[in-house]
Amino acid sequence: MNFTLTEEQSLLGDAIDRFNADRSRRRGVDASEGRGRPEATGESMRALWAGLAELGLAGLLVPETYGGSQAGVGGSMADVMVMMQAAGRALMVEPLVATAVIGATLLEADTDLTRRAQYLDRLVGGDLLVALAHAEPDASASMFRVTTRAQAQGDVYVLDGRKSVVLDGGDADLLLVSARVSGSADEAHGVSLFVIDASAPGVVRRDYATLDGHRACELMLDAVRLPASAMLGAPGEARALIEHALDRGSAALCAEAVGVMETLLAHTTEYLRTRQQFGQVIGRFQVLQHKAVDLLVHLEQSRSMAYLACLRADAPDRDEAARAVSAARVSMARSARAFAQTAIQLHGGIGMTDELPASHHARRLSLIEFWLGTREQHLDRYMALAARDEATSSA
Amino acid sequence: MDLEYSADEMAFREIVRTFVRAELPADIAGRVLDHRRLSRDDHVRWQDILARKGWLTGHWPRRFGGLDWTPVQCHLFDEETAAAGAPRLIPFGLNMVAPVIMAFGSPWQQSHYLERIRQNLDWWCQGYSEPGSGSDLASLRTSAVRDGDHYVVSGQKTWTTYAQHADMIFCLVRTAQGARRQEGISFLLIDMHSPGITVRPIILLDGEHEVNEVFFDAVRVPVENRVGEEGRGWTYAKYLLGHERTNIAGVGASKREVRSLRELAEQLRRDGQPLARVESIARRIAEIEIDLMALEMTVLRVLSARTEAPGPEASILKLRGTEIQQAITELAMDMAGQFALPFVPQAFESGGVGEGVGPSALAPLAARYLNMRKVSIYGGSNEIQKNIIAQTILGL
Description:
The complex is a heterodimer of chains A (395) and B (396). Chain A is an alpha+beta fold and 395 residues long. Chain A has helices spanning 7-27, 38-41, 45-54, 77-89, 96-108, 113-124, 239-274, 286-312, 318-347, 357-367, 375-394, and strands at residues 130-133, 149-153, 156-167, 174-180, 191-197, 203-209, 215-227, 231-232, 276-277, 280-281. In chain A, strand 9 (276-277) and strand 10 form a beta hairpin. Helices cover 45% and strands 16% of the residues of chain B. Chain B has helices spanning 7-23, 26-33, 40-53, 71-84, 91-104, 107-118, 233-247, 251-267, 279-305, 313-336, 365-371, 382-392; strands at residues 124-127, 143-147, 150-161, 168-174, 185-191, 197-203, 209-222, 226-227, 269-270, 273-274. The A-B interface holds A 1-6, 9, 78, 269, 272-273, 283-284, 286, 288-290, 292-293, 296-297, 300-301, 303-305, 307-308, 311-312, 327, 330-331, 379, 382-383, 386, 390 and B 1-6, 9, 72, 262, 282-283, 286-287, 289-291, 293-295, 297-298, 300-301, 304-305, 313, 316, 319-320, 383, 386-387, 389-391, 393-396.
């Protein structure tokens, strides 16, 4: 039982904070104001990403043999927790979850060793952006409904279907697409993962911004022809791998929410200490003090659950990992929403304005729970696993 | 960074588990697990068993006869004993006055009272609240007037838990009318068998006799029973509160009660179907379980970071711990439904099974729900905890 960061982990967190502070200084804004999209600030996203890769973020989860995990840090979800908390503090919008967490997890599982080495090398260097395209337009009820088909025609596969709200899919060089090679939409088996170059014929992307400052895309696959070798892993058996990658992504989001809350709590208490009404600072009013305490309690609970999610996401017992991650997601979703509501309320009218940095944090917290499975989906998953657990222990 | 217990800690847990399995009297465990009333003797018997093993004070430092258990060992001990249905340890001597005597008591108080607590010879209670001094404790008026080698104590304490069983009471009393109210307060250890003390029961809304009024009519207390300096009692009381709030998280007992909720959900049927399969109930159990996971992780974070007494973050544990305890009893009552209604006092007594209406496990649930409203009031109400957090952590 040990909750202490290693020295290297502390240095990693500090380095990211410094990177963000420097970037903010160049833009002439406060570090905690949040970053915003590079194109809106005249910076180059690729250049920024290269800078983050230099800090070791792109390859944080990638084993040292492929050039990742530099300077004594990396390779574990504990490191990801440190990275994502720092990302949350500065409201970073770079594709850390899509590429460094989910993308790296999937590519590391590639059984084609040559391709694995090539892609991971580029990913670590900041030269490859990856996106998992898994969710579909009518797949909201289940995290594992896949109707995109991959038809075997001789030695090629032909992919047809549509993927929805693909996190950072518009910028990605490489798309990892789940598609059904056999079975009906909801079957556990029969889903494969395909590695597709984003510029392949038949791939159409519609890129858009999300309300919380990130980007996603709709992905249309129209008779995309791929060699059999484009399949990553065993045919029809991608579910466990995708689930693990999504659980890591979920744990990363739990940690990010903690960082966002840290900054938003600091903004909010600062406002309570300075804003005057009725001839005194409003932080003197007990009714507001107690609401501020609610924020702190949400933050500390979320921090605890981020530990649980990150340190259990790679547990050898997959059910145990899934239970911990989904429990953390349920807890994070409830806390994030309540936190954002209360923080806006405590700011009053100014909290409603786009001009106030705190509102950007509140926006991220309001929407972060909808990435990679909603609160209800995670609660259902937790309950199903708890029931299964009960059944085996009584058997 | 890792969440696993060390091999030593796992071994410790196993030793505790084996001991509790062999030594915890079945009749006592049965009453705890069935939410029946416990007698003074039930508590004393179990604490005697632990005292003989040295485990009643395992969490104490060695120089006071303890075993220097680490915070994690204390947590494991709490979890294992609670899971098996052991009564909660009466904290007033063990966890509340003892740390104060260790830190501020005289050598005589340390050798005499700590040794007696260690051997489970005295039942302690706490004399803080007064009729006019609840959350505003510093306004207390029970007076102690110096008369030679004695203080003469007059006044009234209230909400005194188990005063009817107690041999000793630790009291905050006013020894001076200082400029600051906090400055005239002293900390006295008073023999409950002293002439001039009267204990009057207060029956709570669940029908229980748990708390009392304690009247002091010119009670003579030797000066050697004052802890530390005269007029510094407030400092000692604040020191004590930090200790009280960690115990109040109650993770071990809440884990046991969530298991009990799950069992109840398997036994009870609604329209022919076990409650465990009823979506609305299953969801609420799952959400409580998730909240409890977050609390346990927070407790472990606080424990492993801690070297000395816990700081204001203990207030967070008190808040969430009590909210969860209350949510559990609320859901249990909701599951009992119409069978929460019959009030058959005998059903709370041991051996009273069967006299109630409906499944016997349900008889105590509504009363327990009402009883557990206390946890967000005692030990510094949850609103007072929020004041503490707002001021000391958030700087408001």
